[in-house]
Amino acid sequence: xxxxxxxxxxxxxxxxxxxxxxxxxxxxxxxxxxxxxxxxxxxxxxxxxxxxxxxxxxxxxxxxxxxxxxxxxxxxxxxxxxxxxxxxxxxxxxxxxxxxxxxxxxxxxxxxxxxxxxxxxxxxxxxxxxxxxxxxxxxxxxxxxxxxxxxxxxxxxxxxxxxxxxxxxxxxxxxxxxxxxx
Length: 182
Prior knowledge:
Elements lengths: L11 E3 L8 E6 L2 H11 L3 E14 L2 E15 L6 E16 L23 E3 L3 E3 L1 H11 L27 H13 L1
Parallel strand pairs: 5-6
Antiparallel strand pairs: 1-7, 2-3, 3-4, 4-5
């Protein structure tokens, strides 16, 4: 029986047990994990997801470097037909423990450099769950407006050039008729 708070993808790294040379992590989502990912990502299906990461110790935390590939299916924004998308993303993320010396006092200002590409994620405790990183990587790579090749509103036979159709066409005609009466 699985724990209710168990991660969807098993990618937990114990920092205190990580060798100095690091270790490799291979993650392949099974059918159950793919179904859960589809729910989380709000897509029709996640057909496959795999990641290959090299995790090395870095300044009391870790650096995860590797590659993620996935195949998802989502509905077209034009016809609602299934649109497959292959995701192929590089991963490079740093996780560092929050330093006690740098904990801001309440009400103080905190400077965050948003232009810094290597802004680390903070961790608490001896474990880092990389499943959140993998899900986030897929979510950021998803096409926001998927459509089949060559698919447009015109290809469905919808007239998009006619300005006299639509919900406000009758109101426009009413306005023009009242302007003539004056």
